[in-house]
Amino acid sequence: xxxxxxxxxxxxxxxxxxxxxxxxxxxxxxxxxxxxxxxxxxxxxxxxxxxxxxxxxxxxxxxxxxxxxxxxxxxxxxxxxxxxxxxxxxxxxxxxxxxxxxxxxxxxxxxxxxxxxxxxxxxxxxxxxxxxxxxxxxxxxxxxxxxxxxxxxxxxxxxxxxxxxxxxxxxxxxxxxxxxxxxxxxxxxxxxxxxxxxxxxxxxxxxxxxxxxxxxx
Length: 217
Prior knowledge:
The protein is of the alpha/beta class. Helix content is 42%, strand content 22%. It has 8 helices and 7 strands; from the N terminus they run H-H-E-H-E-H-E-E-H-E-H-H-H-E-E.
């Protein structure tokens, strides 16, 4: 789903209130990198306004980060947001998850926060991630949970309204649950792509789940 510049700005402004979510995911990224790597390459799929890449950059300043996104508006926003950080370490590319212009066995970590539901073909996207990862490299997916109860989703909508998210952002967020996958569906897709799932977190009543998978040596 592509969004215009105005909505992109509103999205970034609203999500900045929840930087702790990005910091927590950045810590998970740090924990899943080999400490012996001098300059690891991390690919952030669906970089959006760059909030996750910025937090990763703070925690892992020696890492080179490539953020990809199919939205030119989001990439423009990300480029503006990374100014003031170690921005020379963050590069952006306009592309989709199913077509990543990187060589085989190049990346040490691939991470994606909530972009999975917008991939045109999730299986092809996972195949691309597998291709660009080094053997032993890991993929971290944070995902919207399809099983999240509707009554809780309604409360989430009210919370966003009270916090002045704006109708475009509320709709963008709520609509994402309609396209989401269940935990079992995600696990099957990942396993079928050749990955070994090494960690998973989430239950049906929670709004999101997390999976860490590894490309076998």
